[in-house]
Design goal:
The protein is α+β, with helices and mostly antiparallel strands and 164 residues long. It is 30% helix and 25% strand. α4 (109-124) links the parallel β4 (92-99) and β5. α1 runs antiparallel to α3.
Amino acid sequence: MTKIIDKNMLSLRPIKKEDFSVIEEWLNKDYIKKWYGEPEEWLSEIRNDSGDFGWLNHYIVLYQDMPIGFCQYYDCSKTPPGFEWDSEPKGTFCIDYLIGQEFFLKKGLGSVIVQQLCSLIFKQENPVQIIADPVPENIDSIKLLERNGFTLDPTSGLYKMKIK
């Protein structure tokens, strides 16, 4: 019997130190490493070991209070130079997201995560656009972004949701 997933049971909460071990576990899974690369850089940013990453806003994705994923957003104007979004206007925010529990993959929850994360940005910031920078081979993520109003900017290679 297939368990029905209630998308209304999904929520985001700020990460806590207690979450670091489960995030590390997720980042070491092959299907995540394929798109995110080696986990140590991500973990250093999430833990903010150097104190240089206070501009990142990290969240745990919960399903019925159980951690199933991770997401973050940040103001692109606060990142170090050298990224695709360097020439984007002030008020540009970038998002990243993953589902770390395999059972919850391919159930439409990625769209809910993106919707909730964008909603959070609308409430807490004053965005002119929200962008994502998926690996071009990550077709599932690209389709998810397109279903949620993001379009490819062929010049930058970024997926953008313009705010009117």
